Amino acid sequence: MGASQKLQLVAGNGDFDEDGLARFMQTTQLADCGRQYAIISIMGPQSSGKSTLMNQLFGTDFSVMDAMLGRSQTTQGVWLSYAGSLTPPTLVCDLEGTDGRERGEDDTAFEKQSALFALATSDVLLINMWCHDVGREYAANKPLLRTIFQVNLKLFSPRKTVLMFVLRDRTKTPIELLEPTLRQDVERIWESVPKPAQLADRTLDSVFQLEVTSLPNYEEHEDQFVRECSQLREGLQRLVQEDFERIPSGDLPLSTKTIWEAIKTNEDLDLPAHKVMVATVRCGQIMENQCARFLAADGVQQLQDDGRRAIVPTFGQRCSELVQVFLDEYDNASSYYDSEIRSAHRKKLGVEMYSHLRETFSLQLEHIGTECMGAVEEVLAAVSKRVEEGLPADNASDAMGGPSFHACAEQVSGAARSTYQGLAADCVAQDSGWCFDSTATEFATQVQGRIETARAALSDMVLGDCKAALSRSMLEPVVALLEDVRAHTWAELRAIVSEAQERACGELEERLGELHLSGEEMDRLRSAVQGYASALVREKAVGAAEQVGSLMKQRFDAEFLRDSATGLQRRWTPTSDIPAIAQHAKEAAGQVLEELSVFALEDSVDPEVRESIRAAVHGYLHHGGGGVSLASKWAGVDEGLVMISPTKARAVCKKFAMDIDLSISQARSLQTASSQQSKMPPLWTIGAMLWLGKDELRAVIYNPFWLVFLVVIFVLGKAVYDQLDVPAKFKHGFVPGMVAVSAAVVPALLVVVNRVLEALAAASEEQRKVEGGGASGAPNAAGETTASGSGTPGRATRDEAAFTARKVSLTEGTVRQRHVAQ
Question: Rounded to a whole number, what is the distance in angstroms from the first to the last CA of the chain?
Answer without folding.
Answer: 132
